[in-house]
Amino acid sequence: MSVVAFAPASTANVSVGFDVLGAAVAPVDGTMLGDRVLVADTQGQFNLTTVGAYAHKLPDDFTKNIVYDCYLAFEKALVAKEVATKPLTMTLEKNMPVGSGLGSSATSIVAAFVALNAFYDTPLSEHELMLLMGELEGQISGSLHYDNVAPCHFGGMQLVLDEADVVSQTLPSFDDWYFVLCYPGINISTSEARSILPAQYRRQDCLTYGRRLGGFVHACHTGQEPLAAAMLKDVIAEPYRAQLIPGFDAVRDQAAALGALATGISGSGPTVFCVLKELSQAEKLATWLGEHFIQNQDGFCHICKIDTQGARVTGTEL
Questions:
Q1: Rounded CA gap, 302 and 84, in Å?
Q2: Annotated binding site for ATP, which residues?
Q3: Which residues define the annotated binding site?
Q4: Strand ordering across the sheet containing 48-51
Q5: How many independent structural domains does the chain possess?
C-alpha cells in the first residue's frame, strides 16, 4: 500500500496580519507549487528518501529532516490512541526552496502528516493533525506558528485564532485577485528575519496594526474589496525586513505603476507578493520581475490565485 499527499505553498502575514494571517496559493498555469510526500509499506527498516528540485538543500542524514520528526510524532500519537503501527518508508519530493518565505517547511510538514494519516486510514482528526503541524513547525521557527500550516492544510485564507480550541478560521477572499509571487533566488532564514525586528513597538504602531487587521477582516466578510486592499499595509515587519531584500522598493514602484492593489513581503521573505485585478497587468509585472528582481537560476515567479483545496491525497505514486 502507498499514499501520496500534496501540500501547497502559502504566503504568511499578507502584510496586514503578522503571525495570524496566511493564504494558500496555486499558480493559474496549473503548476503544483508545493511539496509531495509518499508513504509506503515496507518489509524492512524505516527509511526517508528525498527527491525533487531542492532536495540537495536538505541534510544528508534523514534523521535531521523535519519529515522524520513528523514520522516520530505521528507514531507517538498512534501509540497514545492504541493504534498499531506498521513498518513503512517515506519519500519527500522537495519542490519548495528553503528560506523562501513561501512556507517551505510547512509544505513538507503538512504533506507528511496528511500522507501518514491517510496511510493509517485517518486515525487522527483534522484538529489533532493541525496541533501536530503547529508543534513541528515551531521546532523550526522557534515558536508556535500556524500562519503557514493552517492555510497549507485547510486551503483558502486563514485567520489564526488559537483560542477556545479553534486554531484558525477561513476568511472570505476575493476571487478576482491575482497574487504575483516572485522568489528572487536568495535565502532568508526565519530566525534571521525575526532577529531584525524590534523587541518592543510603539503604541501607535500597535494601534495601527490592530485597526488595519480588524478593517481587513471586516472588509473580507462584507465584500468591500477596495477597503480590504487599502488595509494591506505592514507596520510590524516590512519596515525592518525590506532592507534584507535587494530591489524591494523598485518592485513596489513598478507594481504600483501597473495598477497593483498592494505589494508586500511573503512571510519572512525574500519572496514578494503583489495583488492585481487584471491578468494582463499581472503578466506584465511577472515579466518585469523575471528581468529585474530574480537574481539566479533558483528564482521563479508565479501568477497565483488562492488555493481553496489545501493539502490533499493525490494518488499512490510520486
A1: 43
A2: 97-107
A3: 97-107
A4: 48-51, 88-93, 34-41, 2-8, 312-315
A5: 2
